[in-house]
Amino acid sequence: MKRGTWVLLAAVAALLAFVLLWERKGPSTSEAEQQKSRLVARPFEEVRRLERAGAAPLVLQKQDEERWSLMAPVRDRADRYAVEGFLDRVGSAELVRWVEKPEPKELGLDAPRAVWTLDHKGGRTLLELGSAAPLGAGVYVRLDGRTALVAAGQEEALLRPLPDFRAKELVATATQEVRRLSLAVGERVALAFERDGDAWTLTVPFRDAGDPGKLQGLLDDLCLCPVDSVVEDSPRDLAPYGLDAPLQKAELTLKSGAAVTVKLGKPVPGGAPEKALVYAWSSDRPSVFAVSSNSLRSLRTDPGELRSLALFRHDLYDAESIAVEGGLALVLKKDEKGMWIVDRPAAGAKADDGPAAFTALAGLKGKRAVPATDPARLGLDRPYLTLVARGKGYDERTVIGVERDGLRFARPLGREVALELSKEEWQAAQSALDLAAGKAPRPAAPATGAPR
Known about the structure:
Layout: H1 3-25, H2 29-36, E1 49-54, E2 58-62, E3 68-72, E4 76-77, H3 80-91, E5 95-98, E6 114-120, E7 123-132, E8 139-143, E9 146-150, H4 153-158, E10 178-185, E11 188-196, E12 199-204, E13 208-209, H5 212-223, E14 227-233, E15 248-254, E16 259-267, E17 277-282, E18 287-292, E19 321-326, E20 330-334, E21 340-342, H6 354-362, E22 366-371, E23 385-391, E24 394-400, E25 409-412, E26 417-421, H7 423-436
Antiparallel strand pairs: 1-2, 1-6, 2-3, 3-4, 5-9, 6-7, 7-8, 8-9, 10-11, 10-15, 11-12, 12-13, 14-18, 15-16, 16-17, 17-18, 19-20, 19-23, 20-21, 22-26, 23-24, 24-25, 25-26
Helix pairs in contact: 6-7
């Protein structure tokens, strides 16, 4: 083959490769058609700031990947999902047609109702809202100087009221940042608790292990309490709302050492009775709000119901070994695959009895907590078993008492309460432990070929 032919073939191959690469990177036919039917040719990237002039002026600023702030007309936390939803609506606005040679006065664009300025990675975009087209055909907008008719639904998005962009939760601080909570009723501190990692401790009106689920739920109910309405921004006086001497006051101490105060005041007059609205204020937000006291019922929970009913402070799934001492001798450990095995099986026991024994122990939980002031009455003066859970940096012990009057109690050492065990759960645990310790006959396997 001649040299010129080779050169021609190489050129054709290079051109083909370029076309294939361009088509791969470029939009598909359907994507190109979709872009033609949209006001914005490509989605906005990394929007950092939004400003609306005209109707209900506002300024929104992105703080980080998860937080937006309202900068004006009042400084407050913004609802991230409302802001991102607005950007999605604008970025996917359905284009009816571009308007050639527009008359701004006829289209309401000589004095736009709202002017949005979007600062993003690609630069700055100016979007102006004009008047609605006749017969519900859409609404006129101007995007960076070019006029278009877009679907009528964009009018609602571009005129979205200011409250829609504000955070919907009473407290601006994230609950995972709270290290301690103190709740006062009037002048009396009725409840206080703190957490260290996954461990929760009640400190008022008594000191004991707290139930993580219930305490986290109480904290969530307070911080994430939905705001029904904004009553007043930047109030000069809290007294008209009963917030100078609140009915309830919570002091939140954050991991950073900062403090947030939340106050609940008088009922809101004229509100829907079923909502039971009350005035509320949080020091990390600038306003007095109306919230439903129905969302805050957990604040009235009896502290005794917030005690932990778990046998150990640490989750057994995080332990590395569990020793059973006393009436039974048994050690369960995790193998290299993280599976629980019988570490030193006695005669008649098998290593693979471990998962069942562990599951039975992990399922043990108290039904109720009672004072442990009379160990003999609770069968704890001479315990039947001692359970020892060991993990990284901790060694926890719980004793299991003998049965008294049909009841069996466990006492986590270091606590002043005993936990009544469910009879069914204990029987299941006893059977699994007996089998793993070689103290129970193994169920006979069915004979081969036996009729079913």
